[in-house]
Amino acid sequence: MSGRHGSTEKDTAGGVGRPAGEHAAARGGARLAGVRKTYGTGDTEVHALDGVDLELAPGSFTVVLGPSGSGKTTLLNVIGGIEQATAGSIEVAGEEISGRSPVDLAGFRREHVGFVFQFFNLVPTLTARENVEIIVELTGVGDARRVPDLLAEVGLADRADHFPAQLSGGQQQRVAIARALATDPDLLLADEPTGALDLTTGRQILGALLDLHRAGRTVVVVTHNASVAQIADTVVTVVDGKIRSVEHNPEPAAAEAVSW
Length: 260
Ligand code: ADP
Ligand code: MG
Fold this sequence. Notes:
Number of helices: 6
Strand order of the largest sheet: 6-7-8-3-9-10
Largest sheet: 6 strands, mixed
CATH class: Alpha Beta
Number of strands: 10
CATH topology: Rossmann fold
Mean pLDDT: 90
Bound molecules: adenosine-5'-diphosphate, magnesium ion
Radius of gyration: 18 Å
């Protein structure tokens, strides 16, 4: 079969095109024990995380709730290896990441984690397609040929050549989700992903995250909006750097049920 382009191998790269509702093999998961994150020293010391024990099952969809300043972002960032915890054990996707150097953590993030932020953080001078491709180039992880599939997966097949300024907020957030998927991560971590969006657009973004969860990924969404919790199978409430409660929801609602 020389000269034949492409591959006869089965595409095992993370469920692109997998129909919604069909749960794939679960990936990711996290286990935290005695995790602390302290900023500053002495008078300015802040215990952003103050002894967190938490287990997120592989393939779970977790919403983290809590008031502003309660430690939600810090929790997400230590799970994703953006920040080093001050103490405790953090096992993510089967790897212990506490105590690792920043360089090691960068490697861990490349292999396992995708992040989505409130304000999209796209490069304004690159098109939607290029904003996703650059992640493959920079990390050396993933396959640039998959980028059109990723954009299609988030409903942006017809916007690939648009620049961020030519896209609505919801479309920009879809590009950001496709970018987070570029390395085919086990975990998708989203910090207030609907915080800058209107309700209709926000529901669409939550629906897109639910679809990615059905493809097997562990998804964690941080929000101050309690209504978002109803779409999660696991709801974690954080207060003053501590876990206040972990509730399991046997019948999560669809994104349309969310309101604000
Ligand atoms: P949330 O996301 O729930 O609003 P954060 O995790 O951002 O909360 O912050 C938790 C606490 O840690 C807050 O008191 C915040 O001011 C503090 N904090 C967060 N990041 C830093 C930092 N880089 N330096 C100092 N204090 C910080
Ligand atoms: Mg925050």
